[in-house]
Amino acid sequence: MKLGEESLMLVPFGKSGEKEDSARYDWNNAARGDEAFVIFQYTYRGAGGFSLGGKEYAVPPGHAFIAILPEASRYYYPPQAREPWRFSWVNFYGDLALRLWGGLRERSGPVIALAPAFGPILEGLIAKARARSWRDPYEASVEAYRFHLEVLRHLRLPRRQTPEPLARALTHMRDHYREGLRMKEVADLAGMSREHFTRLFLKRTGETPAAFLRGVRVKAAARLLRTTALPVAEIAFRCGFSSATKLGTFFRRRHRLSPLAYRKRFGST
């Protein structure tokens, strides 16, 4: 392997406007050899099926499945389908492709929903792949990585519904982070004991109410550091911290930089 090849994401080919309407269209990805690659297949009309880890997924219009071969997955035309499955697909090769698409699949699942404007982006990549319009593997990797970023841009994640009492508490913390909020006060607003509120908040958001509030305050401080010349102590006061030292402690945890180093690197004033 040449220096830098581990960072390539190759796009050898793809195909637009495929149509399948027979149950014979059934690919077992555990029986397709040992070569590692990614299949990205996007539905325009009809619907396909995808299975992974014993779970079955529909692939309706506006959705794509991500298969990472070799693996025990399968994609197929569902026997009960009433209209043809119309789709386009593209393959990606290389260690970087496996890492990027594998990471996306771990976060979002093997079938993802994409915004309507995504279709032409996929078709553009497939056209370039079939025409071999890039001069070398590095240029191809640039196109492949750009496509991955467009997928992230157009990804439509399901919205998690927040129970109304928690939603009120979240809004209150965002609106009053400058004040010396106490968690018992916020729990009372949600109509819960502090202990029950903390357990439910942690389960729903993945962090404690105090950690969430600190995050809101640090984010506000970062904005002031980027856009104003205010002293750090003044920013700490405006963002609800008791001192510049407290701000510095929590700021470093989140940004791995002191407030002054952050301002120097990202400030616009």
Explained architecture:
By secondary structure, the protein is of the alpha+beta class. The chain has two domains: about 5-155, Jelly Rolls (Sandwich), CATH 2.60.120.280; about 165-265, Homeodomain-like (Arc Repressor Mutant, subunit A, Orthogonal Bundle). The chain has ten helices and nine strands. It has a five-stranded antiparallel beta sheet with strand order 1-8-3-6-9, with helices on one face. A four-stranded antiparallel beta sheet has the order 2-7-4-5, with no helix packed on it. Helix 2 (about 120-130) packs antiparallel against helix 3, helix 5 (about 185-190) packs across helix 6 (about 195-205) and helix 7 (about 210-225) packs across helix 9 (about 245-255). The longest helix is centred in the last third of the chain and has 19 residues, at about 210-225. The mean pLDDT is about 90.
